Amino acid sequence: MAILSALAISPQSEACTNLIAGKKATADGSVMVTYAADSHNLYGMLTHTPAAKHQKGAMRKVYEWDTNKYLGEIPQASETYNVVGNINEHQLAIGESTWGGRHELADTTGQAIIDYGSLIQIALERCKSAREAVKLMGDLVNEYGYASEGESFSIADKDEVWVMEMIGKGAEKGAVWIAVRIPDEAISGHANEPRIRQVNWKDKKNVMHSKDVISFARERGYFSGKDEDFSFADAYAEHDPATRRGCDARVWSYFRRFAPDTEKYYDWCAGKSEEPMPLYVIPEKKVSLQEMQWRMRDHFENTPFDMTQDVGAGPNKVPYRWRPMEYEVDGKKYCMERAIATQQTGWSFVSQSRDWLPDPVGGVLWFGTDDTNTSVYMPFYCGMTEIPSQLDKGDINTFDMDSNFWMNNWVANQAYNRYDLMIPDIRRVQSALEEKYRGSRDQKEKELRAIVESGDMVAYRDAVNKEGKEIAAEATDAYRQLAQYLFVKFMDGNMKKTDEKGDFRYTEDGIPVYPSFPGYDKKYYQNIVKETGDHFLIPAK
User: Fold this and answer.
1) What predicted TM-score, i.e. pTM, was given to this entire model?
2) Judging by beta carbons within 10 Å of its beta carbon (0-12, 13-18, 19+), is residue 40 exposed, middle or buried?
3) What is the DSSP letter of 89?
4) Over the stretch 176-199, which tens digit does the pLDDT of each residue have?
5) What does residue 182 show for φ and ψ, rounded to 5 degrees?
């Protein structure tokens, strides 16, 4: 059956990536989930919904997450929790990636009022645990209908993490779905491909699903085998070489960094094998917070898909390719690589949920705007109640010098032209900020824990709000200065000379030292000659 291609799905949710690590798979024992919200029209901002009590009979309006279109309303819960971005005050964090799936399963009832983004937000507002969120999300779409495409969710709390996959039922109300608990010692991920295949249906503790997840597939002709052979991923979507390479390859690149045995799944991603990559693997080494942040900056380095090495990288080793992702030459179709780090990211995060700390201290959202490769991950606690102005609402068409998103874009878009020359300067600033923020957590969390355990939650909120504003301002100011520095240093194709600290050099007489001319690599010149022959040849004397 035809499917909605993973490369042609809804505009706002297009091509997101989630990486996952259970608490026994991480260096510090935290449960970690990452999420990159990738869309060519998405502004990078941090949202906040305050905790609240609601009167009996109150209704909650539902607006489609991507378009802000009003969908309807549902009864409001008596109590809702504080939500900062994609984490709530109980350390529950949720991410997603869209995979589209069978087009005939998109809602045609006209009555569905719960889209994937609202499903996440409502679960964060109402649930304390991942298990509770899975059940609520299933109940919500069953009662109110599902208004989105095929979707995978990462749902984590301080004890466990689940992957949930869902798709609508076309002319029938609701959705079919399945959820699997990722073992504590495992890592997992999803990137616009459904990943749940055979499961142990008797394992009620670690597998949850809609009652008709198999029977509906049988009715529609998607599956005809034995129940134990049922694969949600294969029944409700198809996996051609293009989607594997553009989607599963991102998860494979994460797996191989910690579980070398998964190198073999390169063949699955490259369309050379029909052996699927597993939903999760056990890593040989534990994943640190810093490593998880850097995995979000992956361009397939040191793999056959390495975007800095093929001809498309040009003379400056640029690991980015402009859309469209597929092209045709002489009747054959070809693709551009799609890595985790991509230019169209609006915002991303790495969440930490930690069971040895009080909830207001244990839940941290390391949040960044724009391209994960060049942005700075800033720590914001799940009990924060005020969004820094640099991360507040904005517009994709309105440049703002005080916006963290726009300053990150200013830096990144300069680097897209001369990547290998500019990235060392970006890394110098980026790494210094992130090392400072990570290095200060132990002392800061010791202070916050003491405040929380004293019962003074007003003082706690004042402290996390104050630090959040300071960090957002510092990171934004640093990137504004960095953007200006890059412009000056690389003006007119030259490269100004600097000292070991990065400061511009001057002569003894106070004149700027003459710049250098980096030119191009040897391969670039060889390609010119190959393409033009003797057109540029200087005749021998």
Assistant:
1) 0.95
2) middle
3) T
4) 999 999 999 999 999 999 999 999
5) -80, 130
